[in-house]
């Protein structure tokens, strides 16, 4: 035996053998298994079947979700099973702080705000139970419902369990009913969870959250102010499914309103051969809308009223038995035949399923699979007093022969009874009886009859009448929800004549369509792809609870004033948001995601962008919404200019160099001061602050041809009078992308860049989705960072400006790439030219388009405190970027110096500055200023007026320009590394050490 095993082992591919061996070893190590169902009733039913009624119940942390323990033969061995449950979705999707609050941001930001999955407080006990139980188990089996939502709930359970025990083995049980055969088959064919199906739910959840929250906040906040008397406390919600559903109701109502009845005319022939029989013949022309034409034909018939029998035909007639029951048909038929709403129907069906009485009620299949034993299911029903005899006749007449449809979701069979019961009451009994009778009817035979059609002629006008004789009722015996009646007509013979009892010309009017019933509405939703079979009832219930629609006495939908106004308002904007097209496209894409034929991220980004564009346009045309609603709710109240401004969506100026989201102009709270901010805040804190000297800032439609990433819009700026030199205009258009030297010098810009230290990682491009299960924390507000020195050049720092004092690791150490003004990664080069900077590394633009320059490390030496000329201990310094936006480090000092320990002004050398007085004639004569105290050839270039020792960012623009002139070399745009300062030379002999006044050659 051992020899045989060794020889067999040699013939097996080694890699395959290793995989099988590892799998077998891992499975033999499984001693305890955690099983998780979607609801407690399902867990109880499955445990009862698997344990043969011998399971031991114990408590978890949740009082509603018990734990059932028992032994079971699984994975080829006996294991201990702990069966527990969740209560639907364990995790919820929500925006990260601070976007959860309604007034935290403009609603348009919700299309890009980061989201997270978290466990609601009321489900925390369930989560704790899972975490406790999984620690003792080696395998996890997901027993949630086998549909999209169930698969997603399963992955929520997996995420929670793997966070505690990452190496847990995960399996998926596939089943359609809680019966012994189905549960045993599921245990024998455990599979892997389907991540594609779960991804489709993730996409749907995120889109519903973003679309619903943004439109709901916009509608509610605006309309509560516009119509305070009617809507002050009304939540005006929007959903991409509920709005098309509302649209169907409004469309039917408006069709009835617009209907204009037309008068028609027709000829009716009645024959009563005796007192007991009467037959009415229908005109072949049906009806005419021209009175004169009909009158002429009628008079011709009256002139020659004898009727001649043209033909008598007899043919078999069948009434087809119903198709197997899917979810949509169950909802429609329960609404029509039982007068039970779709919401209540699905609630009852779910309960019957968890009790094991029916199969899974959420299915799109209307054809029975060949491996389903229908005979056994019919046999179970033979014991009933009402339909037992009919079930027995099915078995005696050859067994069930169902009429099959053409739809299958490849997951669940049609809805059918799985176990007989007579203990139900109320609507549960009525719905169970309907499902049983429907199942027996479709397993039976069509009703059979004989139809007789008689055609007559009067004055060359044809008329006909039909009669029906039912031969075999078949399925109608058990299915009272369908009606088929005998219609007896006299016996006629061809080519015979008779005198009609009456020939009349009757008048009538066309009638408008009726208001929609719930069954009609579900049919329209299914036809146009709005929602799924599992969500139709929820969407209908939502528009009812929001008072968008109401019900008439005969249970038909009538739109309310608010619903009418919303639909008309959005339709007047040009976007038919009440039409099903937008949502139908999304539902089609979700199906492709679940099948693995489309990528989750691409579908999400596409539909977010599409709905965002619609939202932006809707906000711009919001007055049309006000006008439409004012027709129903009364005059619209005027809102203030400030409130209007808060509702408007800011236009993008440029893309953020950090996260690629839009950057927009905003106004600081409680101030008129403007700043440019990333819409990814607070995850991304990139911003540009404008000084108080800027009175107005607005986006210009012109686009900078130099700056990237394209497009970077120019800005219109208006300055305070007296803040600029006389030669400069107070209003001009410029670019703040980094290419405009003049604007960089004129504006004392405050650049703030939220880096990796703020958020832990750079925000990703596209929608801000982050769906990992994380604790909920509030994001910190953006930190203020000292602005760059006014003398910093837009292309590179100069040799006369040493690095700031603050120590910080270089950008590369933080894990962030250096980005040039083009928005691309800069390249790292080394200075080869002889000089004081030889061997130093620096960054520059990869293409050379934006003249970006940045030292990779600080200078090797700088002055020591206290005026010492000796070298000091070198601390790692951050790289010195250019003044172009997007390249400024998170923390840096300005070159106006800083305060020492005793409050004295320090220069950029970290030494006390000296105070001097302007002696030159001019407007500043006699004015005192601070400057570097070193000899002229060693000065750092520091300058600051003595009476303006103020916080960074408040320096008048005129003084900023003067400072640039004083610094001199700071305005250069050369891309070369800085060189050592050359000593002054004589103007005659060009030798150092003297001037032309004392030059020996001049004498």
UniProtKB/TrEMBL annotation:
Q: Where is the GRF-type domain?
A: 820-859, 907-949
Q: Where is the Toprim domain?
A: 32-176
Q: Which InterPro entries match?
A: Topo_IA, Topo_IA_2, Topo_IA_AS, Topo_IA_cen, Topo_IA_cen_sub1, Topo_IA_cen_sub2, Topo_IA_cen_sub3, Topo_IA_core_domain
**Gene Ontology molecular function terms on file:** DNA binding; DNA topoisomerase type I (single strand cut, ATP-independent) activity; zinc ion binding
CDD domains according to UniProt = TOP1Ac, TOPRIM_TopoIA_TopoIII
Q: For this protein, what is the EC number? A: 5.6.2.1
Q: Which UniProt keywords apply?
A: DNA-binding, Isomerase, Magnesium, Metal-binding, Mitochondrion, Repeat, Topoisomerase, Zinc, Zinc-finger
Main location, first listed in the record: mitochondrion
Region ranges (Disordered): 396-422, 757-814, 856-907
Catalytic reaction(s) noted: ATP-independent breakage of single-stranded DNA, followed by passage and rejoining
* GO terms of biological process kind: DNA recombination; DNA repair; DNA topological change
Asked if the record carries the keyword DNA-binding, the reply is: yes
| Family recorded in the similarity comment | Belongs to the type IA topoisomerase family.
User: Function, please?
Assistant: Introduces a single-strand break via transesterification at a target site in duplex DNA. Releases the supercoiling and torsional tension of DNA introduced during the DNA replication and transcription by transiently cleaving and rejoining one strand of the DNA duplex. The scissile phosphodiester is attacked by the catalytic tyrosine of the enzyme, resulting in the formation of a DNA-(5'-phosphotyrosyl)-enzyme intermediate and the expulsion of a 3'-OH DNA strand.
Q: How does it assemble?
A: Binds ssDNA. Interacts (via N-terminal region) with BLM; the interaction is direct. Directly interacts with RMI1. Component of the RMI complex, containing at least TOP3A, RMI1 and RMI2. The RMI complex interacts with BLM.
* Name by which UniProt lists this protein: DNA topoisomerase
Q: Which organism is it from?
A: Cyprinus carpio carpio
């Amino acid at each position: 035996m051992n020899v045989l095993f060794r020889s067999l082992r040699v013939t097996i591919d080694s890699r395959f053998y290793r995989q099988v061996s590892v799998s077998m070893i891992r499975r033999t190590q499984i001693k305890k298994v955690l099983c998780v169902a979607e609801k407690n009733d399902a867990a109880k039913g499955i445990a009862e079947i698997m344990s043969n009624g011998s399971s031991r119940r114990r408590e978890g942390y949740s009082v509603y979700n018990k734990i059932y323990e028992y032994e079971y033969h699984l994975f080829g061995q006996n294991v201990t099973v702990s069966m527990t449950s969740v209560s639907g979705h364990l995790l919820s999707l929500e925006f990260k702080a601070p976007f959860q609050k309604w007034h935290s941001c403009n609603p348009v930001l919700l299309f890009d705000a980061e989201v997270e999955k978290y466990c609601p407080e009321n489900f925390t006990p369930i989560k704790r139970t899972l975490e406790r139980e999984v620690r003792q188990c080696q395998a996890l089996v997901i027993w949630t419902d086998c549909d999209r939502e169930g698969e997603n709930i399963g992955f929520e359970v997996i995420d929670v369990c793997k966070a505690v025990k990452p190496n847990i083995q995960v399996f998926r049980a596939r089943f359609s009913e809680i019966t012994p055969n189905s549960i045993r088959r599921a245990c024998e064919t455990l599979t892997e969870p389907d991540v594609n199906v779960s991804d489709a739910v993730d996409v749907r959840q995120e889109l519903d959250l973003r679309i619903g929250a943004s439109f709901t906040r916009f509608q509610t906040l605006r309309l509560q102010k516009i119509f305070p008397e009617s809507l002050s406390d009304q939540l005006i919600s929007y959903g991409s499914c509920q709005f098309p559903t509302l649209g169907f109701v409004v469309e039917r109502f408006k069709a009835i309103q617009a209907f204009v009845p037309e008068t028609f005319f027709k000829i009716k022939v009645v024959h009563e051969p005796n007192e007991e029989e009467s037959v009415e013949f229908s005109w072949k022309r049906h009806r005419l809308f021209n009175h004169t034409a009909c009158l002429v034909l009628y008079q011709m018939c009256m002139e020659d009223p004898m009727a001649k029998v043209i033909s008598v035909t007899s043919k078999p007639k069948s009434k087809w038995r119903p198709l197997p029951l899917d979810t949509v048909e169950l909802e429609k038929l329960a609404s029509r035949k039982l007068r039970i709403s779709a919401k209540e129907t699905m609630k009852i069906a779910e309960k019957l399923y968890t009790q094991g009485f029916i199969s899974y009620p959420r299915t799109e299949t209307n054809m029975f699979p060949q491996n389903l034993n229908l005979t056994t299911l019919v046999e179970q029903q033979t014991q009933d007093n009402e339909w037992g005899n009919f079930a027995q006749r099915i078995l005696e007449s050859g067994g069930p022969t169902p009429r099959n449809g053409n739809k299958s979701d490849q997951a669940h069979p049609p809805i059918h009874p799985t176990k007989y019961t007579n203990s139900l009451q109320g609507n549960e009994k009525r719905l169970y009886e309907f499902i049983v009778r429907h199942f027996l009817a479709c397993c039976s035979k069509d009703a059979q009859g004989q139809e007789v059609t008689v055609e007559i002629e009067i004055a060359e006008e044809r008329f006909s009448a039909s009669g029906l004789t039912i031969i075999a009722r078949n399925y109608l015996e058990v299915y009272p929800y369908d009606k088929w009646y005998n219609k007896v007509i006299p016996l006629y013979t061809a080519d015979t004549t008779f005198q009609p009892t009456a020939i009349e010309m009757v008048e009538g009017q066309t009638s408008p369509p009726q208001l929609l019933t719930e069954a009609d509405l579900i049919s329209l939703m299914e036809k146009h792809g709005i929602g799924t079979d599992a969500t139709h009832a929820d969407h209908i219930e939502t528009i009812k609870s929001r008072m968008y629609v109401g019900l008439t006495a005969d249970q038909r939908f009538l739109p309310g004033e608010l619903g009418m106004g919303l639909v008309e308002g959005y339709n007047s904007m040009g976007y038919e948001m009440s039409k099903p097209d937008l949502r139908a496209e999304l539902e089609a894409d979700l199906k492709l995601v679940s099948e693995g034929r489309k990528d989750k991220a691409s579908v999400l980004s596409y539909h977010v962008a599409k709905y965002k564009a619609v939202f932006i346009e809707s906000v711009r045309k919001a007055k049309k919404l006000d006008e439409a609603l004012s027709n129903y709710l009364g005059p619209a109240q005027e809102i203030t200019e400030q409130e209007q401004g808060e509702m408007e969506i800011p236009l993008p100026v440029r893309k953020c160099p950090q996260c690629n989201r839009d950057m927009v102009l905003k106004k600081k709270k409680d101030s008129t001061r403007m700043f440019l901010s990333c819409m990814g805040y607070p995850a991304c804190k990139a911003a540009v602050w404008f000084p108080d000297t800027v009175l107005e800032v607005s986006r210009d439609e012109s686009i900078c041809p130099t700056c990237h990433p394209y497009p970077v819009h120019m800005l219109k700026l208006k300055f305070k009078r007296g803040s600029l030199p006389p030669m400069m205009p107070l209003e001009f258009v410029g670019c703040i992308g980094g290419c405009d030297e003049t604007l960089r010098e004129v504006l004392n810009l405050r650049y703030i860049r939220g880096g990796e230290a703020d958020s832990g990682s750079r925000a990703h491009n596209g929608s801000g989705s982050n769906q990992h299960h994380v604790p909920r924390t509030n994001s910190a507000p953006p930190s203020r960072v000292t602005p760059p020195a006014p003398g910093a050049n837009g292309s590179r720092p100069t040799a006369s400006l040493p690095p700031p004092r603050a120590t910080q690791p270089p950008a590369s150490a933080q894990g962030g790439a250096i980005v040039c003004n083009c928005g691309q990664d800069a390249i790292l080069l080394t200075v080869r030219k002889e000089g004081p900077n030889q061997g130093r590394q620096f960054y520059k633009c990869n293409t050379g388009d934006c003249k970006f320059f940045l030292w990779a490390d600080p200078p090797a030496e700088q002055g020591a405190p206290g005026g010492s000329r000796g070298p000091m201990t070198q601390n790692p310094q951050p790289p010195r970027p250019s003044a172009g936006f997007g390249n400024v480090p998170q923390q840096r000092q300005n070159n106006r110096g800083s305060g020492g320990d005793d409050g004295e002004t320090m220069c950029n050398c970290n030494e006390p500055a000296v105070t001097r007085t302007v002696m030159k004639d001019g407007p500043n004569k006699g004015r005192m200023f601070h400057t570097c105290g070193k000899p002229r050839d060693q000065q750092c270039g520091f300058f600051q007026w003595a009476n303006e020792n103020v916080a960074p960012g408040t320096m008048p623009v005129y003084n900023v320009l003067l400072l640039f002139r004083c610094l001199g070399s700071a305005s250069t745009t050369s891309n070369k590394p800085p060189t050592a300062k050359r000593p002054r030379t004589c103007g005659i002999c060009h030798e150092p050490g003297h001037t032309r006044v004392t030059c020996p050659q001049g004498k």
